[in-house]
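Exercise: predict the structure of this protein bound to flavin-adenine dinucleotide.
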Amino acid sequence: MSSQAPKEQSYDVIIIGGAIMGSSTAWFLTDNKDFNGKVLVVEKDPSYEFCSTTHTNSCMRQQFSAELNVRISQFAADFVKNIRSYMGNDDRVPELSVRNFGYMYLADNEDFANVLRESQQVQLDAGAGTQLMTPDEIKKNYPFYNVDDIVLGSINTVDEGFWDGTAVFDWWRRQAGERGVEYISNEVVSMTKNAAGTRVESVTLKSGETISCGQVVNASGPRASRTAGMAGIEVPVEPRKRYSWVFAAEKPLDRDLPLTIDPSGVHVRENGGGTYQCGGHSDIDPAVEYDDFTMDHSIWENHMWPIIASRIPQFEAIKVTSEWAGHYAYNVFDHNAIMGPHTEVENFIFLNGFSGHGLQQSPAMGRGTAEFLTYGEYRSLDLKPFNYERIVNNQPIIEKAII
Ligand SMILES: Cc1cc2nc3c(=O)[nH]c(=O)nc-3n(C[C@H](O)[C@H](O)[C@H](O)COP(=O)(O)OP(=O)(O)OC[C@H]3O[C@@H](n4cnc5c(N)ncnc54)[C@H](O)[C@@H]3O)c2cc1C
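Solution:
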C-alpha cells in the first residue's frame, strides 16, 4: 500500500503502531471528555498481516499471580461483555461474550503445585473463581485427560476463555477514526529531540515528512526496541517466535477443552466444531528477525503432537488444518507490560513488552495510557507499577503464570 501524508504538521499525540494497543489508546483518548487534542496513528502495515494482534490465540484469563494483572483482566472481561454500552450504545457494535472454557494449569510437581495454591489465593482475594482440583477431580470433570503424572490442577471458568479480539480491535479503530483520529499508512523512521534531550520534538516518516508532537506513544509491538532506539533510548523487548496449529480430531471430545497448559509448556484449547488450537515454541527460544515468520513443521511432529497425544490420548488421531508463526513482543526483563514515560525523555510513552498476554490487557492499558496522556497520571486503575521506571530501578514484577 502506498504511504499517506499526514494532514497536519503538528499533533498533540502521535501513536506509532495502529494495532490493538495503538487503537485502544486512540479510542480511549476520543472517549475522554477532558482530552481535546489531535491524534495521529502511524501504521506501517495497515493490512495488519504480520503484527502480534493478528497472530493471537485471543483468550483471556483471570489466573495470574500478580494481583494487578488479575484486575487488568477483570476490566477486559467487563469491557468485552459490555462493549456496546462502552462504545456509546452504537447499535452497529456487536454484542460479545467470553467463551468460558477456562484455563487448566497442570502441575506435575509440588513446587509448581504450591505456586498454583499461592496464586489461587491472590485470585480469590481479587474476586476470581479459581478452583484447585486433585487428579481424581480433574478426571471426573474432564475424563479425557491422562493425569498419571499430575499432582494438582487449577481452573477458573468465569471470564476465562476465548473472546473476539478482532471485533474489539476493528471497532476501536473504526470508531476512533469516525471521532477524528487520523490513521495513516506510513512508517516512523527517525525522531529528533530538544537540545537537552528531554523531549521528542518531531518524528520523521518514511515518505519524508517531519511532524512535531506533544507526546509520542510507542505501540510498535515486537519492534518496540527499534522505535525506542530512534529516541536514543532502550527497552528490553525482542521478537520471539510463537507457533500455532489448528487441528481436527477424528473423535472430538465430548465437552469443551479448557485452554490446557501442560507442564511441558505446550498449550492446547477448544476451537469449536471438533477442532483445537495448540501453541508453543522451540526449546531454544532466540530473538528472531522482525520479518522472520517461517514455520518449523518439525516442532509439531517431534515436540507438540507427542506431548498432546500423551496428555489427551484421544488426540492420537488428528489432522492439522492450519499453522502459522507469530511474534511475542517479549519483555526479557520481567515478561510484563512496560508503560508510562521514559525517565529522561519525558514525552516518550511506552506501551510495550506484553509477552503473550497483551490482547486481554488492551482495554486496561489503552484506557490507562489515555489517562496518562491526558492527566499525567492513571485514574481508573493504578498502572504505575508497570512504568518504565522499574527497569531503571531494577525492580522486576514477577508474574509466575506466563504462557
Ligand atoms: C501466537 C500468539 C498468541 C497469543 N495469544 C494471546 C492470548 O491468547 N491472549 C492475550 O492476551 N494475548 C495473546 N498474545 C499477545 C497479543 O497478541 C499481543 O500482546 C498484542 O496483540 C500486542 O499488540 P500491539 O498492538 O502491542 O502489537 P502488534 O499487534 O504487534 O502491533 C504493532 C504495530 O506497530 C506497527 N509498527 C511497528 N513499527 C512501526 C513504525 N516504525 N512505524 C509505523 N508502524 C509501526 C506494526 O506494523 C504493527 O501493526 C499472543 C501473541 C501471539 C504471537
